[in-house]
Design a protein that fits this description.
InterPro entries: Homeodomain-like_sf, HTH_AraC, Tscrpt_reg_AraC-type_HTH. By secondary structure, this protein is of the alpha+beta class. The protein contains 26 helices and 15 strands. The strands form three sheets. The protein has a six-stranded antiparallel beta sheet, sandwiched between helices. It has a five-stranded mixed beta sheet with strand order 12-13-11-14-15, with helices on both faces. The chain has a four-stranded antiparallel beta sheet with strand order 8-7-10-9, covered by helices on one side. Helix 1 runs antiparallel to helix 7 and helix 8 crosses helix 13. The longest helix is centred in the first third of the chain and has 69 residues.
Length: 734
């Protein structure tokens, strides 16, 4: 037998083991590299900050020198005071040159006097219109000078070459003044680059310096920018310093791999691989044993459900166990189904009483139910009320759940009372329950069964909102007589229409009933139908008397159905004597039998009263339309269509419909309960309010659209009827 699963184990464990070991080695390398990089980044930050501080210190020194010269040297103040002698200009130029010599970063220095536009630098004297840097002078002279500028190009003369990139700072003379004189110092950007080139070189770090606009002042072109560089921004000079590490990961990795620790780790890896192989062989032994036993069983019994191994041992074992479990479950399921069908068949034979039951099968069934002997057996039938509505409201799964709960409620209720029962669903909506009593009188047993049935009914109604009606048969002493008890329970259920649903009906309640007076109540049918046909409202009282009589007789369902079928027939015969339009109305409102979901006399009475009343009043309306009411309806329709006519009046209506004015007024009053003028005013005001709410038409146009010739008349009538003027009404509703 091939050991495929062993090889799978090895291929599952070994790669994972090797990957884990390599992962830890990689994590070690990365961790060491990260630690070294963190230290180097801290060094880079200190390195960049030192360069920033040095540049800022140099620039601050230059600025302090400017301030000190302005405040302490009288030469600059004299220049601002219009001193212009040649000797003075020479002294001033020498002063500026001396200031430039104090710091190697200074490119040039000049002063400007606003009164005559004279500029004196450390090299020459000229006027503002000759000076190439006049724009910078005018910008700083008109406003308050604000620190060091961004790098810019500076040259002395406009038409000459030799411009230099500088950053500049300007100070007013005297300090804090505006528009008098200006001292400007230009620092060479190239000098700053040379400083960075001299002091900004590092073996592990690189440096990049940019101005406020992001333009690079200094950078090491052979180094790529690090993903997370150290960034420092000088609020004084406006320069941004970025410093990061130079990449030397390959060299660090080589030194790590060639160290002794890697060799030691490799030996540990080989030892771990050997251990995995050894443990896999040991753990495979149980699988090998199971496979051997299955193959021996298959060879010995030639079981058709067990196939030969196809390569995967565990799949083969799983396939074998699954088939064995399925075969066992199928056997158990078939046995349970056969037992359930056998018991259902036996119960049907018992309640039908057609063929004698077999003694051995009966004794075996009683033993399964836990009944050895019984003194009496009683049948009760639990019927679900309004079953058609029940199956429409609930899904098949919910219906099965309700029925299962019902059987469990019956089982638990009788168990608490030390009874044994046998229950089966003989139809979709009827549960037959056989109670077995031991050493108990039949009357006492009947009372206990009735009490238990009432308890079951109340629980179902309160907990599940499900109503049932229970019919109870008499107690019998022999199995062959159980069919008689079943017939009595069925007969009791047939009286549900008369006695009502959602209750317990015992056989003793219907045994002494007599139906001799049924013919008397059948006489009501003809009276009801004739009164209905002629339009007399007395039919309603006769219908109530009929159903009261049926309740008093306590008829079974079959006889109640017969009475109602007779009434339907008689009504149909009476309706055939009416004109065709009345017959059509009858057929629309009251066709066919009553609803099969109606189970009690109360429900049937409500059904007939509602349907017959609806049809009766529709027929009454049809009769009334054939009189003067048709004229009144037409008059109302004419008013609603022509209310905007200012000449609309009762006389005009009389001429339109060829009626006497007085008669029309009386008829109108009887129909609507108010005079014609009041009704017409109401129609016009409702239309006016609609136009005021939904349109922007002026009031005088609206008055014309609702039948008023003069707007003032309309406004007075509107205020009298509505309570406010048309304008106020529009404001309140727009």
């Amino acid at each position: 037998m091939r050991k495929n699963w062993l090889y799978r184990l090895l291929l599952s464990y070994l790669p994972v083991f090797v990957m884990v070991v390599c992962l830890f080695m990689f994590i070690g390398v990365v961790q060491l590299n990260n630690l070294s990089r963190q230290d180097a980044m801290k060094s880079s930050q200190a390195y960049a900050r030192n360069l920033q501080n040095n540049i800022d210190m140099s620039l601050r020194t230059i600025e302090m020198m400017m301030i000190g010269t302005i405040t302490k040297n009288t030469t600059l103040m004299s220049f601002a005071g219009m001193e212009s002698s040649p000797e003075f200009i020479i002294d001033l130029s020498q002063l500026l040159q001396g200031m430039a010599d104090t710091n190697a970063l200074i490119d040039s220095i000049y002063v400007y006097r606003a009164s005559d536009g004279v500029i004196v630098s450390n090299q020459t004297k000229l006027t503002l219109d000759q000076f190439a840097d006049s724009a910078f002078v005018e910008e700083n002279l008109s406003g308050q000078p604000s620190g060091w500028s961004d790098p810019r190009l500076f040259r002395t003369f406009e038409n000459r070459d030799g411009s230099a990139s500088v950053i500049s700072i300007a100070k007013g003379i005297p300090l804090g003044s505006k528009g008098i004189a200006l001292l400007v110092v230009n620092v060479s950007v190239n000098a700053i680059r040379e400083y960075f080139a001299s002091f900004g070189q590092s073996e592990v770090s690189y440096l990049s310096v940019t101005d406020r606009r992001g333009s690079e002042i200094y950078g090491q072109a052979d180094q790529k920018l690090h993903a997370n560089p150290v960034t420092l921004e000088s609020s004084y000079s406006g320069l941004t310093y970025r410093s990061g590490l130079k990449t030397e990961f390959a060299g660090n990795l080589y030194r790590y791999v060639t160290s002794g620790w890697v060799l030691f780790g490799f030996l540990g890896l080989l030892l771990g691989i050997w251990w995995v192989v050894y443990i896999s062989h040991k753990n495979y032994k149980p699988i090998e044993t199971i496979m051997s036993r299955i193959q021996k069983y298959n060879q010995q019994y030639r079981n058709p459900i067990i196939r030969e191994p196809s390569g995967d041992e565990l799949s083969y074992i799983d396939y074998t166990l699954t088939n064995m479990i399925e075969a066992t479950q199928d056997y158990v399921h078939r046995n349970q189904e056969n037992q359930r069908y056998r018991r259902l068949r036996l119960l049907q034979e018992l309640v039908e009483g057609v063929e004698p039951i077999q003694e051995t099968e009966w004794i075996e069934t009683l033993r399964e139910l836990g009944v050895e002997v019984f003194s009496s057996a009683s049948v009760s039938i639990v019927e679900i009320d309004k079953y058609s509505e029940f199956i429409r409201r609930y899904s098949h799964e919910d219906q099965r759940l309700f029925k299962y709960i019902l059987t469990k409620v019956v089982e638990e209720t009788v168990k608490a009372d030390s009874y044994r029962v046998w229950q089966e669903w003989i139809t979709n909506h009827r549960l037959a329950v056989i109670y077995f009593g031991i050493g108990e009188e039949r009357l006492q047993a009947g009372n206990r069964i009735a009490a238990q049935s009432e308890e079951i009914r109340e629980w179902l109604q309160n907990q599940l909102k499900l109503t049932v009606t229970v019919g109870i048969g008499m107690g019998v002493a022999e199995a062959q007589a159980i069919s008689q008890s079943y017939d009595a329970a069925t007969k009791a259920l047939n009286y549900k229409s008369a006695l009502g649903s959602n209750r317990v009906i015992g056989h003793w309640e219907i045994e002494d009933l007599s139906h001799d007076d049924l013919f008397v109540y059948l006489q009501y049918v003809r009276t009801i139908a004739q009164a209905f046909r002629v339009g007399s409202e007395g039919w309603q009282e006769q219908l109530k008397l009929l159903f009261d009589g049926l309740r008093s007789l306590l008829l079974p369902k079959e006889e109640i159905d017969g009475v109602l079928s007779y009434m339907n027939y008689y009504f149909h015969r009476e309706m055939t004597e009416l004109p065709p339009e009345y017959q059509e109305l009858w057929n629309q409102e009251f066709r066919g039998r009553w609803d099969e979901r109606l189970e009690t006399l109360d429900e049937l009475e409500a059904f007939y009263e509602e349907r017959l009343s609806s049809c009766f009043y529709l027929m009454k309306s049809m009769r009334e339309e054939k009189g003067n009411r048709v004229v009144v309806r037409r008059v109302r329709e004419y008013i609603e269509a022509h209310f905007d006519d200012p000449d609309l009046s009762l006389s005009m209506l009389g001429e339109q419909f060829q009626m006497n004015t007085s008669s029309l007024s009386t008829l109108f009053k009887e129909e609507f309960g108010e005079k014609f003028v009041v009704y017409l005013c109401q129609v016009r005001m409702e239309r006016a309010k609609e136009l005021l709410r939904n349109s922007g038409l002026p009031v005088h146009e609206i008055s014309g659209k609702v039948g008023y010739l003069h707007a003032m008349s309309f406004i007075r009538t509107f205020k009298k009827t509505v309570g406010v003027t048309p304008g106020d009404y529009r404001k309140a509703h727009q």
